[in-house]
């Protein structure tokens, strides 16, 4: 097949007006370009040219279990989490029974899938990811004079403190905010989400670094350009920092409040051209190909997608992706950087 994909473009308000158009080599149009979707999800199915004209990717390969994205963050995303498979199945059926249209703005469960995510940075990428140990958060709150936050954390523990922060309509924005939260304070003054953000891990990825987010991980992307791979799902439970629908009940039902160290998925240093993102629990596989000369690759899986993010990989231009079926081959040329993604057939 070796067909070039036309992604679904998402112009969310937090998107970057320059990063994705510049990567694709197309004129900037003053719209916020947030995400490019290379997959078959019904909320944004990629298309491709066939002998009979343009058609949706799912009409050619069926429904893919994974979704590949390019994401460009200029403003912070919502404070959010994603469900497990069991939670998604139950929630999707419940909203169907209630008669909530799948495309309705207040629909929370858009599909029946969990949403684990692998994020691979293409630029410096900042995010909030999971909760820091309570002892560290308490010490930081006391040192910076966030005394009400410290009092609640000491008395009630993490989850109850997060509920207090998000349940009340307004909180005075704390003083002495760290630099990475100052844009949030400007965009969402007096939001309880800022108090929650003070309890979270601040992660800065360098280009090539990666992180894996399990279902239930509470997070918010702050800035940067990245490749993102996930199951083919758009189930998002939002709690703050957004104009989209907020569902506090489902956020708390799906969020993990255990303190955790962010799970790095950065490939080990290697001398070859192929870096493998090793995540045993992920229902998809991702490789990063550093192409220097000319190589030929043959698809070993039912469906594989290749995405060029740097340079011109032969017929695959920067920002372009193509799809291969098992046994089909692709020639890549360097210098270029290409991501290769496929799904676990058991997922």
Please, could you describe this protein's structure?
By secondary structure, the protein is α+β, with helices and mostly antiparallel strands. The chain folds into two domains: 76-266, Jelly Rolls, CATH 2.60.120; 274-343, Jelly Rolls. It has nine helices and 21 strands. The protein has helices at residues 19-24, 58-61, 85-98, 134-144, 147-156, 158-167, 182-187, 192-197, 248-254, and strands at 3-6, 8-10, 35-38, 47-50, 53-56, 66-73, 79-81, 117-121, 125-131, 200-205, 210-213, 219-231, 237-240, 263-264, 274-277, 284-291, 294-298, 303-311, 321-325, 329-333, 336-343. The strands form four sheets. Strands 2, 3, 6, 8, 9, 10, 11, 12 and 14 form a nine-stranded antiparallel sheet that branches. A hairpin with a 2-residue loop joins strand 4 and strand 5. The radius of gyration is 21 Å and the shape is globular. The protein starts with a strand and ends with a strand. The model has no long low-confidence stretch (mean pLDDT 93).
Brief characterization of the structure:
The protein is an alpha+beta fold. It has helices at residues 19-24, 58-61, 85-98, 134-144, 147-156, 158-167, 182-187, 192-197, 248-254; strands spanning 3-6, 8-10, 35-38, 47-50, 53-56, 66-73, 79-81, 117-121, 125-131, 200-205, 210-213, 219-231, 237-240, 263-264, 274-277, 284-291, 294-298, 303-311, 321-325, 329-333, 336-343.
